Amino acid sequence: MARRSFSLMLAWRYLNPRRAMLSAVTLISVTGVLLGVLVLVVVMSVYAGLERTVKERLLGFTPHIRLEYVPFGGFREPIGEWRGVAEQVAQTPGVESATAFVQDYVLMVDEQSRKRPVMFRAVDTETPSQVEGISKMLDSAYPGSSADMGLDNRIVVSSVIAKQFQLQLGDKMKFLSAKNLDEVERIDRMANEPPVREKYATALQSTRELLKTSFEERGDKLFLSADKDFALTGPFMDISHQMEGIRDQEREIIERFLALFEAEPAEAGFLLEKSVPEEAAKVLAELDATDVEKMNAENDKSLREIILPKEATVIGVYQASQMALTPDVFMPLPLAQELTGLQDAVQGIAVRLKDPYQAELVANEFVKTLPEGWQLITWIEELGEFSRLINQQRGMMYFVLSFIIVISAFSMMAVMFTVTIQKRREIGVMKALGAAPGQIVKVFVYQGMILGFLGSLLGVGLGLLVVRLRTQLQEGLRAVGFDPFSKSFLGVDDLPAHVNPTEVVVIAISAFILCTVAAFVPAFSAARSDAAKSLRNL
To answer: Domain ABC3 transporter permease C-terminal: where (predicted)?
Structure first.
């Protein structure tokens, strides 16, 4: 006990040799550790706050689980009877709500005819959680903003769109569906195509001849062999399967022709009604009598109905963030269904959970209860790249900023080497009086431990103070024209932060250990010095 007291007493004595409040060496060493710990605590707390804030904003409108119907494992199919599925899903334990999901691109046009393609997301305004999630994102720079869209053509736009179009609450915007543009292009191509009777004249003439010779009478039915049936219907099936080059009116006539040959199978063929050849000939006569100009005029008339834009009123502006991709426009579900041509169908079922972090467990329950053909996408999968990017950035910040503490430790090591050189004679006297090497090592290790403890404690305290006063500091920086954390980038007015106690303790302990190790190296070197040479200051 006496030896430990001797080493600790001498360590305190060396830290304050002039009996002042704090020596310059002590102040410099503590300040280096303090700054390293402070920077790490502040930056990591801000990073954690940004991650939590962005995730909360995204989870405010992003489905925790999205169900899509992919019956053949290929493209997503619209869901017509989605309400029944949503009711079934909503009964699953852990599910808060299940509603429609519609998302697509449209062409946005303002009153000055300025245009821009935008991504929109449908909001089922009958689901309070969806409206509440958007309400939390509203931009304070637009007082009076609301997310209460109801079932009318009222929309909430992002701050980016509002700035580009110079929008104010109450402005009118028009939307032209991207699918309508595809339809315009298709109808325009059809208008320049020759009619089927000219384009496939050879196949039609062959079919007329086959209608006269391909049937055999069998009682009150006509028998058509499988080979002749294929010869009659094969060319028309190929024509009807073509997506382009055939007008809708001609396609409808061809489908009626093929429907005549849907009959009960017989051995090596089919049994048909005796009226089939005559009715088929009449259908072919209709195809020969088609009026190209009349068909084009009908298509043009439907085109004028298709491209009619939908008008909506801006009732809210939400603050977009450059840290994550968010929709440009939120609109009520009925308007979104009109723009996508879904009528009463939807693209998927948006499921919200009481605990979003249980998404994978709940998704496994859906797999057991839903029939085949359903595809499940959790928010963890959808935002996986974003989460990985945040975690990678946090790791890089840890790695880079930890060097501040390492540099402080090296500075302390240099200071301790200087101290041990200055105290060589005193070290020689202690050794001559019988001080053990361990005692001498402890003298300087205790100094490093005290400096590390004080630096870590003050760094944590000041770091937490800076985090607490971050809003006032940010306002002060903005007042002098410097804003490193702009609202347009973060998507929030004030800089968010979240203090993780475990993380703070790890930072403080790491700094303390590094300072202790840094002091041990010069202490060990001093303890091995020769007493006689130290007394002669050699």
So the answer is: 399-529
